[in-house]
Task: structure prediction
Amino acid sequence: MRILFTDGGSIGNGSASQRARMAVFDDALGSVVVDRDLGSLTNNEAEYRAISAALEYARDQALGSVEIRSDSQLCVNQVMGRWKVKEARLAPLVDTARRLLRANGGRIVWVRREENRAGHFIEFGHANGPVVAGEHFAPNAMKTSAPISAPVAAIPVAPAEDSSRARDGYCVRCGEPLARRAVDHRERRTCTICGWTLFDDPKVATAAIVSVGDSIVLCRRAIDPGIGKWSFPAGFVDRGEVIEDALRREVHEEIGLEATVGRLIGVYSRPDDPVVLIVYAARASGTPRVSPEATEVGLFSPDDLPEMAFSRDQRIIEDWRR
Result:
């Protein structure tokens, strides 16, 4: 689903000299696709104009269903029908946004101010022009700041969904507490207000059975779990890292050898364990050494193993010997 960020704001909000502007940011293109002066409108009016402009853009460009992301809790909750529309002047704008959203078949969600990619263009000047010294568009009248004169390129863009915040028990979209509900065949943490669901991802790890002749290289673990026991060189795969590269890195970090990755031995997982372990056969060169993660390195016959750290280690060795 295409993501469109929207924002609107007004300089001098509520005054006779107020001047409003809106922007729509297409996440797939990485650029502002609507950048428009709105004349004498309030912050909330500009926010609604931006939401409708994004949905009209999606319609005109035949984008299909889109996800609108706005940092205005008022607009998001009013469009969703959770909050009443108390200002008569906003009612037609709310109705237009609702009609366009229904026709689009998409959804609207709330994001934090610093996550709104359209907001950066509103706050830091026109999308296609320089920052005007002394001016600052404040889409949320409760969040004003001093004039800013930094270039747009210097503005950091945060990810729209911060899973660490969800793990603290709060929805990354609307900030409400999460509750456990049955979603897609199992219990998951879900927002009772907007329906956002946290899907906990597994942790991917990789290990190597490094063979030297008829023996294999094991290391005595210096850290828990399994501290003081023996196992294979292993570790977690970093996000975006190729698994074979992670394996070579872990072998070098733990025991100081340069590994040549061989065949895949197996992929191992267990119920209620978030770790998925991918094991390869490997050869290695160099001189082994200890590390903060391994207090000893040794060669062992597969038929005469020391006390292993994990119950699945024996199965892995059996799979390797096939």
